[in-house]
Specification:
The complex is a heterodimer of chains A (231) and B (291). Chain A has 231 residues and is mostly helical. Chain A is 74% helix and 3% strand. Chain A is extended, with a radius of gyration of 27 Å. The two termini of chain A are 17 Å apart. Chain B is of the alpha/beta class and 291 residues long. In chain B, 51% of the residues lie in helices and 11% in strands. At the A-B interface, helix 2, helix 4, helix 5, helix 6 and helix 8 of A face helix 2, helix 5, helix 6, helix 9 and helix 11 of B.
């Protein structure tokens, strides 16, 4: 019973939506129209569930003094601070600092936006900016022409790196047609992106799509049950 | 240790220092880089440019603060282009971190550069909606059901029911738009807009993504994706096409073009280090063979 009902619901909803996609007539067309709305409502609840789960995991780590538990304090404090600041809308009001439940969340006078602009934005920007340093260091160490495969990778990386800047144009802009099609670095970079890259990406995506179809069928038919907590 | 062996094992802090200098100095000069639009970006520009006045364009800003330097210039350039062409611009986000970015676009680009444009008539801010690709799927059939309220303009304009907004009246579903422009940096993003939005509704989709994500989107171009801005270069190419077609846009419309200069120098520094690393590698190999 505990497993039978979820499997039956999955089967009914899954089969109905597959039929709705291929048969755009009543009653299936309305299913196709309304079920995404239910999905959005469930997704909104998932936010609450996600928040609760985050608190549970990190509070457990703090109470058990697990490895690097101090970081969990930062996570919990950050989560609660941001949530409370957004829910009760602390900020500048006409009478001074206080709670203004009627304020718009976009109001820059709110503590919520101060936290977002003053902490969240610089932290995310810093983390992403650090990539430039690590990419440079990793490229220096990893891009060595040790094997023929590594040499191909190195040449492709060189062409794309230079081709993605105006330098590619400066260096090879003088190449006359029809040779410019293959000797002009930006064109060569575009060729790498749109031929070998595209072939590889398309292969991967077709593989993923087939995997999703087979996994979806396993779920709909009740063969795959790991999401129910079983084997 | 020989010179080449030293060259092959440069302390990573030197590399960090070179990158910092290579980015900072060009950034301080404020010079823009000469950029020629690539076909994939030019196609996107041409597709939007060919829309007749009054056409409805949906702009979805699906990214967070970490990729604002790459993604926001794309959104700004598209917004400028749409309003210049008198297209109706609907701005949304399906990322929780998106609403403050929409506010930046509204205040720093739309209201600053187009003070004569009217909110609710020429452009609208519909804000954030939870549900990832589920939202896109729901928008196909019931746009107004998903957006019963707009997000307004912060302190200047409170949110109001979309039934009171003139430009929302003709919208039933995604098929009532003439073009969809998602600007994204991950999931859900451009790929989901193609799969659940453009392909289902039949509306043309063309967008922008970060440089690392761009190779994943090439399989959709040109059939399912009218054009694509990949990374800062993509944004700079769109700005180049825009400022070339509409020279009245001043320096404020060249944000990505200015940022391309530090990126170019940084790329050259990386290429230089890769070349040095390989010289050191081959020198060490030759030396080992001699021994």
């Amino acid at each position: 019973m505990k497993r039978g009902i979820p499997i039956a619901i999955t089967f009914l909803v899954g089969i109905s939506l597959v039929i709705a996609f291929f048969v755009p007539h009543a009653p299936f067309d309305s299913l196709d129209r309304h079920i995404p709305e239910y999905f959005n409502i469930i997704a909104a609840f998932a936010f609450v569930l996600g928040g609760g789960n985050l608190l549970r995991v990190h509070l457990t780590r703090i109470t058990r003094r697990d490895h690097e538990w101090a970081y969990s304090i930062v996570t919990v404090v950050g989560f609660l601070l941001m949530m409370i600041a957004g829910l009760i809308k602390i900020g500048q009001t006409e009478t001074g600092t206080g709670i203004n439940l009627k304020a718009d969340l976009a109001d820059p006078a709110l503590f919520f936006n101060w936290l977002y602009d003053g902490i969240f934005v610089p932290c995310q920007a810093t983390m992403f900016s650090l990539l430039a340093f690590f990419v440079a260091s990793a490229s220096y160490r990893a891009f060595r022409a040790k094997t023929p495969e590594a040499t191909i990778l190195l040449v492709a990386a060189f062409v794309v790196l230079v081709g993605r800047t105006p330098v590619g144009q400066w260096l090879t802009g003088w190449v006359p047609p029809p040779f410019d099609q293959y000797l002009h670095i930006p064109n060569l970079s575009a060729w790498i992106m749109s031929i070998p890259n595209l072939a590889g990406q398309r292969t991967i995506q077709i593989g993923i799509a087939l995997g999703i179809i087979s996994n979806s069928l396993r779920l709909i038919l009740g063969i795959e049950r790991s999401h129910l907590g079983g084997d | 240790m020989t010179f080449f062996e030293k060259l092959g094992s440069v302390d990573r802090r030197w590399i960090f220092l070179f990158i910092a200098v290579a980015v900072t100095i060009p950034l301080l000069t404020g010079r823009s880089a000469p950029v020629i639009p690539s076909p994939i970006v030019q196609h996107l520009f041409d597709a939007i440019d060919a829309l007749p006045p009054g056409s409805r364009v949906l702009l979805s800003l699906d990214f967070g603060p970490s990729t604002v330097p790459e993604n926001l210039p794309m959104a700004s350039a598209v917004a400028r282009h749409c309003l210049k062409k008198n297209l109706a611009l609907y701005v949304i986000t399906i990322w929780a971190t998106g609403p403050p970015i929409i506010n930046t676009l509204m205040n720093d680009v739309i209201r600053a550069d187009f003070p004569d444009k009217v909110y609710g008539v020429d452009y609208v801010n519909l804000g954030y909606k939870v549900g990832n690709q589920g939202v896109i799927q729901a928008l196909n059939t019931d746009f107004k059901g998903q957006y019963t309220m707009d997000a307004g303009l912060g302190k200047d304009l409170a949110p109001q029911p979309t039934s009171r907004i003139a430009m929302m009246k003709p919208i039933g579903g995604l098929r009532d738009f003439q073009f969809i422009v998602p600007i994204g940096s991950g999931f859900p993003g451009v790929k989901e807009w193609v799969q659940f939005g453009g392909d289902v509704s039949g509306v043309d989709v063309g967008g922008g993504v970060t440089a690392v994500e761009a190779p994943l989107l090439y399989p959709y171009y040109p059939q399912q994706l009218s054009g694509l801005m990949g990374g800062l270069l993509g944004a700079a190419e769109y700005e180049a096409a825009l400022t070339q077609a509409y020279p009245e846009f001043g320096e404020s419309a060249k944000v990505a073009l200015v940022r391309m200069f530090p990126q170019t120098v940084a790329h050259l520094v990386i290429v230089g280090f890769v070349v040095l690393g390989n010289i050191a590698f081959f020198a060490a190999k030759r030396r080992a063979r001699k021994r």
